[in-house]
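::Amino acid chain::
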Amino acid sequence: MRMLRRQRTSFEYMPFLRKTEIMDDGKHTGRYTSKYGGRVTYTGNVAMPTGYVQATWFGIDKDYSHILIMDDPKAPIKEEGIIEWQGDTYVIQAVRPSDNFLSIAMRRITPEEAKALKEALSQQQQEAPSGSETGTGSETPAETEVTDGE
């Protein structure tokens, strides 16, 4: 059975591009900067993970708070990407495609992590040249840097 349109909700996805280590005078610091692509809007059905079958679908060692189901199994959504849904920010923990659906386990990030991400996004928008749009699905999406660790 396909998903009902009335059950779908829209969310914004930012793909994970790469992680680079921050160097201090040529020395390893143990801190990293994550780069994310531009925002792309998709629709899907978000549900709370309940029951034994759903809890083991992504493995027992995965930490996730919601499951997102999309009816497009070929959507270019990958692990470690960022999803913004209903004012909260989530990190994608696992992606499991099937014949008709794409199941995504996502974990809500802490308010401190969300604040750092939003600051990096606002800085990126200020640095973007005029006339360019972020998250339009263009061939060269804008990048966002987020620093991990202190």
